[in-house]
Each structure stands twice: as C-alpha cells, then as structure tokens.
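Notebook entry, structure prediction.
Reason for the run: the old model in the group folder had no record of what sequence produced it. Starting over properly, with the input documented here first.
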Amino acid sequence: MIESVETDSYHLLIRNIRLPALPGSLKTTNLASIEKNGTTLEVLGIDIGGTGIKGAPVNIQTGQLMAERFRLPTPEDATPSSIADVVLEIVQHFKWKGLIGCTVPARVEHGLVRTATNIHALWLDTPVEKLLSEKTNCKVTVINDADAAGIASVKFGEGLKSQGLVFFFTVGTGIGSAMFYNQVLIPGTELGHLRLKGDAAELYVSDRTRVNEGLSWKRWASRFQKYLDRIEFLFAPDTIIIGGGVSRPAKVALYSKYLSTRATLLYASLENEAGIIGAACFAGETSEAGETGEMSETGEIATF
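New structure, fully documented this time:
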C-alpha cells in the first residue's frame, strides 16, 4: 500500500513504499558482471557543473579513477552546444573511444532534458544523449547529477550497506536529491523544489543562500533542520546522506551538532569525484554487456 499526503499543492509518496526496479532505475549491485573478454569494463565519467566540467575513466567494479581527473571551465553561456564542445575536449584529452556516462544538473527522461531550473533555458527538451553521442562519436548515457552522486555513495561510499529508503542530498548552489529503495535508484526526484517558507526549499537552505545571506553555520543549520523535518515527515527514510560542498569534513564539524534526525544521518566523502563515478557506473549498468560504445560510420553504436 502507498499512502499519500497533500501539502503545499504537492502530492508526495510516503511510508510503506514497496517499489520494484522501475524502467530507467539502477540497481547498484552486480556491476562486476559487466565485462568484456574477462577484463573489467572501464567507462569515462563526465560531470557537468556550474563552474567546471570534469571527467576521468572509472573502473566500475571498484569506483577508482583510472587516470587523473581532467577539468575545464564551464562556458559562460552554458548552452547545449557550448557544453557539448567542452565534453568533446575531455573525450579527446583521454583519447576515448568507449562508453561515456555524463551528468547534467537537470531531470533527464529517456535521454531528454525535462527541467531547466539551474541551467540555460535552451536545455529544456534537448535530446542530450543524442547530442553528446553524435558530438563525441561514442555512446553517451546521461543522468541527473544528484542521482549520479547518490549512486557513487550507495555503491562505494557511506551508503554502501544502507537498506530500506535512502535519500542522498547534494547541497551547494541548489539542492539535488536522489532516492534509493533497497539499493535501487528511483530516478528523477527534485526535492530541492519541495516548498518551504512559501518557495522552493533550495532558495531557503542551499549553501549558496548561506553565503549570499551571510548566515552563520548555526543559523543555516536551523534552516536545514526544517528541511530535514519535512523530508522525514513525508517519507520516513531509514538513512539520509548529505553530499555536496557542505559535506567536506571541515564544514561538517561546524554544523553537524545542530542537526537531529530519526533516520541515520551520514555525510558523503567522495566529494568532487562522486558525479564522475556515478555517471560511469550508470552508463556501464545500462549498456549491453560486450558493447564498446564506439559508433560506426553510419552513426549506429558498434557492438563486438
């Protein structure tokens, strides 16, 4: 049974969630089965952020980067075309010819960008997987940035042994969210837009708001506590993992004592590598075993 509650015009699912894997969802186990000729498949992970775009090849069995992370600044206009040019530069830097996993700070449905709250409006309804695949001549799988970071945490980080309902939140310029049930990703949540104080919660409790309003860590934590209270009321999660810039140990030490949750509260440690790792794992898991990801001259993905 699924109960629902209406609050601030939102119909949100809470308690007694019993969900199977959904189309497009990712079970974060069994990545080790993705192999070619007995060798673990490496995937290039690329993380598109507001100030930088970074990438590295990832061993999706271990979550380790197989080369030093390469970063380029995000173009000022940040249009789909300009971002695609930077993604190509990263692919060329690694001389990459295989599968690519890439994040975007937006909801992605069947390869299409469906929201454009924190990115250029031209991204809305862009067929981003097609755009980047044609640009790089490789198969590119795209995932929301918070979903990717959550995958990395659940697969290799603090959420590794977490069962039941788990939420991962990236707290930075805005608030991104990822939802897991028994290690299965339920994609596309946008809980930074949950209404709080009459507007989107991220406008009240993001790290950017803390900086812009000159809030002390104690005062910011009191705001964030209200957000966590709302999440717990609506969903009753078993575990909450905090990621993003506020998860760095030096910052956690300044505010964690002011937070209290019924759920187990954890802080992510993968930091700047989480999006890269999660995107690579998602691409590897959703691709067909044995597929190299290189495109043929006809534009089709070549399989061997």
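Summary: The first strand starts at residue 3 and ends at 7.
The old model has been moved to the deprecated folder.
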